[in-house]
């Protein structure tokens, strides 16, 4: 009896629990259905978005992990197809053009090409010769920008009676002038003491070439102010005329169309004359303070130009320190002067018979040769400067007379430009009028 009661009570206890579990499991099932509804696919699928013109990334569809993932292929438009086609044609055309150019550069030498190239590689269509010709022509495209614009930077020298014995190449920056920039005054350029006398005196012995280390647009005006009528400086060269090698602009003296053995360069930067260091007289950069370093070089340069030397290199190499060349040369002159005076004194003592007869010796016999050269150079310099002053006045009058005598674009279009013969005749007439006007102003000045 007791066992029956215990069984019945156990059932009564289990039945509510089973009902409770069923009641709790029902909301869970409902919640899962709602979640499935939320995860349903949208009406706007990828195909519709792609047709509407929107960018859609291809995403793999959610499949069973055991199944293979399917990726969506990218759809090309007609514009994309055209772009690919044009790019392919562009690549083909570029490759064909490069190949044709390379093949053309392997051809035999032309008649107008360098004789030096022809001496290095002969004509012929073997692979080795074709490769060498291609290499030379290919490298020449880069050397074109490293070489000066002309093979000869200066015109041929004048004939012998008018030709100077030596050529003097002078730097501009920090040798003849010095430029500084300040916040108060901006750019200011100072001229070194003695520059005018240095240029004017040595112009009677040397063909002076001004070789600036800056570009023409920066240095041309300064060079014009140093010598407005080109009486002292024969030619002006600039940075465009340098040779570019290993990141440096070099002043190559071999391209001046002059004998290199008769060329002297004075510069403040050793990189500027690194190709011909034997021809250089180095100087320290001028900082703008007063000095006489240029004037101290005149005796040596004058001596060198009057000795009719064929090669200046051995003479320059005889100095131990070229930065102190003027001081060392003065020491040599002092020793030569003492030796000359001693020899001259012995000669006078030996000529006692001429003195007894009353025959006077030459007045210049006892003069030191360099002193005689200097006296003659000073006389020539004074005469030359007088001529320069007269030419300056003539040039001023000529500039005033020819100020408005220019041709306009209308004259070129209408054909009103005179022939070269007519222009020459007109220039001769104008020069005659200028000379007459100059003489008239000169007479008026003398009367006053």
UniProtKB/TrEMBL annotation:
Task: List, alphabetically, the InterPro entries matched.
Answer: FCP1_dom, HAD-like_sf, HAD_sf, TIM50
One GO MF term: identical protein binding
Q: Where is the composition biased (Basic and acidic residues)?
A: 429-448
Q: Where is the signal peptide?
A: none
What sequence ranges are listed for the domain FCP1 homology?
Answer: 161-304
Please describe what this protein does.
Essential component of the TIM23 complex, a complex that mediates the translocation of transit peptide-containing proteins across the mitochondrial inner membrane.
Protein name, UniProt field: Mitochondrial import inner membrane translocase subunit TIM50
Organism per entry = Kazachstania africana (strain ATCC 22294 / BCRC 22015 / CBS 2517 / CECT 1963 / NBRC 1671 / NRRL Y-8276)
Q: Which gene encodes it?
A: KAFR0E01020
């Amino acid at each position: 009896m007791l066992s029956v009661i215990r069984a019945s009570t156990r059932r009564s206890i289990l039945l509510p629990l089973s009902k409770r579990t069923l009641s709790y499991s029902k909301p869970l099932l409902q919640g899962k259905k709602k979640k499935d509804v939320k995860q349903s696919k949208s009406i706007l699928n990828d195909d519709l978005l792609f047709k509407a013109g929107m960018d859609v990334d291809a995403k793999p569809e959610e499949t069973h992990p055991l199944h293979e993932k399917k990726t969506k292929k990218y759809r090309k438009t007609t514009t994309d197809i055209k772009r690919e086609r044009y790019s392919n044609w562009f690549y083909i055309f570029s490759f064909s053009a490069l190949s044709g150019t390379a093949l053309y550069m392997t051809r035999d030498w032309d008649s107008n090409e360098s004789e030096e190239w022809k001496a290095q590689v002969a004509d012929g269509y073997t692979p080795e010769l074709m490769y060498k010709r291609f290499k030379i022509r290919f490298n020449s495209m880069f050397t074109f920008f490293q070489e000066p614009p002309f093979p000869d930077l200066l015109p041929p020298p004048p004939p012998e009676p008018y030709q100077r014995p030596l050529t003097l190449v002078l730097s501009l920056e920090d040798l003849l002038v010095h430029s500084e920039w300040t916040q108060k005054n901006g750019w200011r350029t100072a001229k070194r003491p003695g520059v005018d006398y240095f240029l004017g005196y040595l112009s009677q012995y040397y063909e002076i070439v001004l070789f600036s280390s800056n570009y023409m647009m920066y240095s041309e005006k300064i060079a014009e102010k140093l010598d407005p009528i080109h009486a002292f400086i024969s030619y002006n060269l600039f940075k465009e005329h340098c040779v570019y090698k290993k990141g440096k602009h070099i002043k190559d003296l071999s391209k001046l169309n002059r004998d290199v053995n008769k060329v002297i360069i004075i510069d403040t930067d050793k990189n500027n004359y690194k190709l011909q260091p034997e021809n250089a007289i180095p100087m320290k950069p001028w900082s703008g303070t007063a000095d006489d370093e240029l004037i101290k070089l005149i005796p040596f340069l004058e001596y060198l130009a009057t000795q009719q030397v064929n090669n200046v290199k051995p003479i320059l190499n005889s100095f131990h320190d070229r930065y102190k060349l003027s001081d060392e040369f003065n020491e040599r002159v002092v020793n030569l002067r003492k030796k000359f005076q001693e020899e001259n004194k012995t000669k006078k003592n030996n000529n006692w018979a001429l003195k007894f007869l009353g025959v006077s010796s030459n007045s210049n016999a006892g003069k030191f040769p360099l002193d005689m050269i200097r006296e003659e150079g000073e006389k020539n310099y004074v005469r030359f400067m007088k001529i320069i002053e007269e030419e300056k006045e003539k040039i001023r009058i000529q500039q005033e007379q020819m100020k408005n005598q220019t041709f306009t674009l209308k004259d070129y279009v209408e054909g009103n430009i005179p022939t070269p013969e007519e222009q020459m005749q007109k220039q001769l007439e104008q020069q005659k009028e200028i000379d007459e006007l100059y003489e008239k102003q000169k007479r008026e000045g003398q009367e006053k």
